[in-house]
Design brief:
The complex is a heterodimer of chains A (292) and B (370). Chain A has 13 helices and two strands. Chain A has 292 residues and is mainly alpha-helical. Chain A has one domain: Orthogonal Bundle (MetI-like fold). In chain A, strands 1-2 form a two-stranded antiparallel sheet. The two termini of chain A are 42 Å apart. The mean pLDDT of chain A is 89. Chain B is an alpha+beta fold and 370 residues long. Chain B has two domains: 225 residues, Rossmann fold; 126 residues, OB fold (Dihydrolipoamide Acetyltransferase, E2P), CATH 2.40.50.140. Chain B has a six-stranded mixed beta sheet with strand order 6-7-8-3-9-10, with helices on both faces. Chain B has a five-stranded antiparallel beta sheet with strand order 13-12-11-14-20. In chain B, strands 15-19-16-17-18 form a five-stranded antiparallel beta sheet, with no helix packed on it. The radius of gyration of chain B is 25 Å and the shape is globular. The chains are: A mainly alpha (292), B alpha+beta (370). The interface between A and B is medium-sized, with 18 and 24 residues. Bound molecules: adenosine-5'-diphosphate and magnesium ion. The site of adenosine-5'-diphosphate has 11 residues of chain B, from strand 2 and helix 1.
Amino acid sequence: MAGSRAKDAKKLALILLFTPFALWITLLILLPHVGMMVLSLKEKVAPRVYEYGFDNYINFAQEPIYWNTLLRTGSVSLLVTLLALLIGFPVAYYIAKIAGNRTKGALFLLCLIPLWVSDLIRAFGWILLLRETGVISSALQASGLIDTPIEFLYNDATVIMGLVYTVVLFMIVPLVSTLDGMDNEMIEAGYNLGGNGFTVLRRIIIPYAMPGIVAGCIVVFMLSAGSYLTPILLGGKNSSWFTEQIYDQFISRYNWESGAAFGFVLLVFTSLVVWLGLKLSGQTLSSTVAKS
Amino acid sequence: MSTTNPTHDLACTALSKSFGSVQAVDNVSFDIPPGSFFSILGPSGCGKTTLMRMIAGFENPDHGDIQIKGRSVIRIPPNKRNVKMVFQHLALFPMMNVYDNIAYGLRCVGASRKEIDQKIADVLERVALPDVAKREIHQLSGGQKQRIAIARCMVLNPDVLLLDEPLGALDLKLREAMKIELKLLQHQFNTTFVYITHDQSEALVMSDNVAVMNEGRFEQIGTPQALYHHPASAFVAGFVGDSNRWTGKVIDAGNNNVRLSCDAGFDAQSHTTDTITLSRGDNATVYVRPEHIQVDTQVNADNNNQTDATNALTGHIDSLLFNGANSRVLVRDKAGELIEADVTLTGSSHDPKPGDLVRLSWRSEQALCF
Ligand SMILES: Nc1ncnc2c1ncn2[C@@H]1O[C@H](COP(=O)(O)OP(=O)(O)O)[C@@H](O)[C@H]1O
Ligand SMILES: [Mg+2]
């Protein structure tokens, strides 16, 4: 009797714990996507008359500007990922391996602080600094280095810098956690057996940190390719970011069917890039993201 | 600085290292002849790892010199020293298989593919694991990992192999087996092993020479027999092997003999070493090993039947620790303290039993006073 009641209680606890998660998955992720999927396959043939077909996708494929925007978004996001890795790795290595125990916590917290400010505010912060009448331009003028004000906004470099700034944190966190798990003995063994600094980095530290590197790269790439605010605000109207096209279809043209199709194209495209990246680096999702 | 002294594989002179106010290694000097098994034995925190890390080059000594095969290595970075190290947790690279783990060092010195294959096959043969080259590290047992860690170092032909408590992570049974195996491996490779441990039985079983370390200093260097039978300090006497000890005041001293009035309420006759000078009134401690105490069961309380032994006590057996030929009794004396003594149990009815009144005796030359 008592045994079965305990079992029941356990079951109940499991259900109670699991319910919010299941609700979240179905209501907020599964249902909207199914809805979008259905929507993207519809086509308006006359007011209030719809047909099912792949026309929305065919439209996308036939218009080079959409293609180009998608490829541009993909390649710039890859560049952002690479830069975030190049900047994030030394920072993560310092936090995990070089800093003392007490500084480690403080530095990690310092990294998290930008997250406390909303994306929008941060982007406007950049605008304040970089616009023609902004802080940097004025300062350069005042110091006499330049004669006329310079517009630092609305170019690719600024967009890339802004994106790296917003996503680099998501590179640092998984890297710190994998590097933290690496025994210092391993690095010393690398030197002891005759390796120099470069060998130890290439043959021991990077392979060991690979799961963290891949996890960070996936998250950063997805965030960057799916971001909207930063490219729009820092890149202006001609930033040619794919999310902008989606927004355009939904809001400006009020063509929800085509917007949904674009959304799916982006999803499939980014998934494909991630899959390709995993294949090329010889990693699997379960050995990287699931682990860290 | 660098004098050539080919009779030693490793020589340290007056090495010191402190971390802030902690003197981790304090004026340590020793030298190790080629091809021998040298152990550094000491309690946890006494500076063993620090000493080893200085030899490997991961710490810079504050003072002193380290010579390997007669050449000073103080200014040589870790990756250029021909001293290899088996780390406490082995530090095998988990993302490489056994072959790549062993090949790592060979690739660092630019060995050819053929040479690497040849050397790896050879070293795996020597550690008796010829078929594991393609295995992943996590597929190896604890003892196998141990041997791969040694193979990974030995394939590079080091002048000296350092081992930092490598058996610590193994379970008791495997540890016993690995003790013997390590000694055999050292013989086979004929390379100097410097072995760090806090476990005296490991040090005594395997070593040609043992240094006993305490609070950053070397208390004594000697063969296991010398340390056991002729400890040079109270610390060594207490740390190496089991001992009964009594503290007391010296009431008579001279000619390497001491008479001590013990706090436990009896007088003990003991000898001392030449290096220790005790005089009347000094506080001192006398050490007696359990195997030197004779246990007599035929005794009645008021009549101490005399033997040639100079020290004697009576007490009741508190408990019997049966362990075959190494059995031991715990005897509670009049002062209430427990004394350990080895006994030979024959299985007959004359064997001592808990509660028996016994007489414990030992000769003064088997007791040592500091
Ligand atoms: N990097 C370090 N910084 C500060 N103190 C240290 C450091 N390494 C070791 N110590 C101190 O030095 C002493 C000896 O340590 P260690 O050599 O590791 O001892 P053992 O290996 O014998 O257990 C200890 O008191 C330890 O706290
Ligand atoms: Mg240690």
